[in-house]
Amino acid sequence: MQGKRVYMDNAASTRMDEKVLEAMEPYLFEKYSVATSEFGHSMGIEAKEGLEEARKSIAKRLGAAPGEMIFTSGSAESSNLAIKGVMEANKGHLIVSDIEDFAVLHTARTLEKAGYEVSYLPVDEEGFVDPDELVDTIRDDTVLVSIQHANQEIGTIQDISALAGICDEAEVLFHTDATHTFTRVPLDVEKIPVDLVTLSAHTIHGPKGIGALYVREGTPLKKQMEGGFQEFDMRGGLENIPGAVGFSKAVELVAEDENRRLKELRDMIIDRVQEEIPDTTLNGSREQRLPQNANITFHYVEGESITLHLDMRGIAVSTGSACFSRSLEASHVIMGIGGDHERAHGSVRFSLGRFNTEEEVNYVVDNIKEVVKRLREISPLGKE
Amino acid sequence: MQGKRVYMDNAASTRMDEKVLEAMEPYLFEKYSVATSEFGHSMGIEAKEGLEEARKSIAKRLGAAPGEMIFTSGSAESSNLAIKGVMEANKGHLIVSDIEDFAVLHTARTLEKAGYEVSYLPVDEEGFVDPDELVDTIRDDTVLVSIQHANQEIGTIQDISALAGICDEAEVLFHTDATHTFTRVPLDVEKIPVDLVTLSAHTIHGPKGIGALYVREGTPLKKQMEGGFQEFDMRGGLENIPGAVGFSKAVELVAEDENRRLKELRDMIIDRVQEEIPDTTLNGSREQRLPQNANITFHYVEGESITLHLDMRGIAVSTGSACFSRSLEASHVIMGIGGDHERAHGSVRFSLGRFNTEEEVNYVVDNIKEVVKRLREISPLGKE
After folding, report:
1. Among the listed residues B242, B245, B221, the one whose alpha carbon sits nearest the alpha carbon of residue B233
2. Angle separating helix axes B241-253 and B42-61, nearest 10 degrees
3. Does the beta carbon of B226 lie under 8 angstroms from any beta carbon of chain A?
4. What dotted CATH number matches A18-253?
5. Chain A residues 320-339 with CB within 8 Å of chain B
6. Which residues pair with B119 in a beta bridge?
7. CATH class of A6-15+255-378
8. Chain B closest CA to A224's CA: distance in Å?
9. A22-57, pLDDT tens digit by residue?
10. In A339, A348, B194, B249, which residue has its Cα 20 to 30 A from B337's Cα atom?
């Protein structure tokens, strides 16, 4: 592995698959018409067909109808549209969990500043929302509950079936951010009464700049981006047909075999670290966990020091929240599961993708073992 | 040209240049880190550098500083952010022209419904806003004026220098939608006091799904898309680095020679049609006109019939507004310049791009000549 670079941070899933680009190329160089020209000429119809095939195929993977799938520029836009769109169409009370990704959490805070009432649900030490607590938090004027399918940092998969069922019974709309679970963890909107689902392409080796929002038929939603009448008049702006086609191909390429393989790699990391490195804590649930995620706190060392030393060895891993790496503030997720600053700052997240190998996993664990040992020897954060 | 397809509709400029994809590929397959990992490891720094180089290069073309350039998902998002962002940060009165693209026009109408006061400036028979009328429309509480650099349908280029100067003097913010002019028609924000400029990549053979908003330093703007702290905390969501790099390459590829060539092709269309086909009207200005646009009404025939017959000959052109082709309603632009329904419905727009040739132009004009002649022979819209 000497000289090679190993991506085991959140970029691991964002490397585009060559097959995705292959699928996009006809729409970049030959069938590049504008979809809204469909009434004008046959090239417009051909481009529109590419868009609608992509929509149908992505919708199908979720158990949805094509008309319930709105293309957006990515998961941030999808979550903004879902939450602002529903709240502005209905007014009332909003519930989100404490450990949502920023697209949800910051949207909730912005709405709160604008005068909406928002409740933030705490999570337990593994990151789970307590269904009973959700029942207690729902009020007569609650309009929407937004709880992620799985957490972006610690990988905990919520019991979406139970949570959506509670909302359904209370006649409250339910949104889930499935950015990290779509195609990796089953979700069927025919079986689970979820009303809005945020989807992303770049987390499954698809293109950046494209995502989608599933909106159950009949859900009241206020348009957030003005422009033409694209996307069932729910999202203005020229359709990104190559992006949609690439997204669809990316969805098609995720097979159950791959998810099993990712789980095996994930378990290799967790098992080897727990057996071979003392004083570690697995963050999140061992069982209800994203196939592609491991998150471990190495006590008495700084995560930033680990990432720095691994970087010098050509290895990319993350610490704290990806977004927060900019400010070095403690991860709101680790704090949310009851961790302290030491646990947050010592946390290292491993993210896996299609192109990671068993050899890479062993190389990364071997190196982290060495690095943690050395850092602990010189650490001022001594064990008592 | 038999058997070949000729794109001379708005798709002509959206065919991606192979060199753009070449520039993007390293960021799809090798340097695919997340830019916000810049503090974490060197791969993040490398990816971030790609993003910042792209930002710098695009900003430079506009005479802007890199820190004044916010990447978005495209021109619709840019115009939404500019107008909602400024109006929500300031409250007050908004002025737009009657013939803006829908991203601006529908944003204005949405704000109007939300209680903002909006004035719509009429245009003259060539599509120009009258600077004196702008002076008269500006009120004490006017916050923002949004007037496009050039029109999307009839190609009329506004006297942006005069309009921006008026706003500057009145201490009113000025936004211009430069979707169709960026790199094609000079605009230098060091010389012209414009505060916000909407830019798009797909109109210059760049990628779809990426655009930018120039925001002059110090302009108050409310963030519209929540997420992380990307884009100077003005636009959340994972950075689309391959898109930004492709956008930058697309900008670099537009040379003055090409703009001259497009003007020549445009003039060939206009001259040949006006000389060889009776009863036509050029829509828009002859002199102050986009290099890549011709828009002509063929009287006594339906534009829809022309596009249909040209389509059977493998030629794509547009009629009415691109977006309105969906509903077959009359173009708001042709109506805005004082046209009637007959003039709007008989209008055909020719859009040119890098890959159009002189041979194609002659082929298209030859065909439209035949088609118009035949349609007029059978037309119920007889000349009196």
Report:
1. B221
2. 30
3. yes
4. 3.40.640.10
5. 322-323, 325-328
6. B95
7. alpha beta
8. 9
9. 999 999 999 988 876 666 678 888 899 999 999 999
10. B194
